[in-house]
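Hey L., structure's done. Input below.
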Amino acid sequence: MSKAVAKKSKIIPVSVYDSSDTWDILEEHAGAGFEDTNADDFVLPFIKKAEHQSKCLQKQHEKYVPGAEAGQLVHNVMLKSFDTLYMLPVKYDNFLQHYKFPDGTGGWLGNYKFNAPDVPEYPKVTKDDRTYRVPIAMPDSYLQQCFNYIGLFFDKDMTPIGPAILPMEKSQCRTARMFNVLLNSKKITLANGNSIKAPIFSHLYEISLKPITNDKGSFYAFAYDTGTVVSDRAMLTDAVDLMKSLREVDTTTLAPEVEGSDNTEPSNDSFEI
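Output:
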């Protein structure tokens, strides 16, 4: 992360309201209108990869994102694209998505938390030069591991764009495992000299995409930096609030959407929190 962005990360810009004769009304009724809402009333968006065949690049498709290019990150609710985003993670999920063959296009059947007792028994089977977890009771289907990172996201100028999910699956599983090593290794030395294991929301991470070419073709993989310690109290408070709001929510329940049979990964629209 650049020094300029690191400096900005300590202060989150907000909308500036410069009408001095009415600001007191807004202050008195801050947050009004959402008193009776709960987690079921909101949708948590996804930060998706724009690949060459992604629907967000197809002008005639309802999910088209104006100006988006392959290799960018796309917010599937705002319908905006970004070269770089900054993520303050608050929760991590490891689960299995259950699909019917052929390769996801046959339909999504459900999800299971990884190693949960209700996961169907499966051997690993090689099919078309790929290895699948194929349930014994349903040989026409397979289980695909997915890693989701839920957090607060900011654009390159550190303007908040809200909470969202960053999914890593298929070829991105190795990237996710390496990212987990980084997240799990963080320690912080407090003012009293004590060293503690850092919570997942202690650091802000720069997220982007990098091009990858192998024998299966060309695609994009997630890239990340080593993280910058967050010292802004408001940002940390927002992260804790989001983390608490997700405690009673099964965030592995997703509504999947398959992007196609090119080298993209199956992706997801959104789910209710």
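The chain has a mean pLDDT of 81. The radius of gyration is 20 Å.

-- N.
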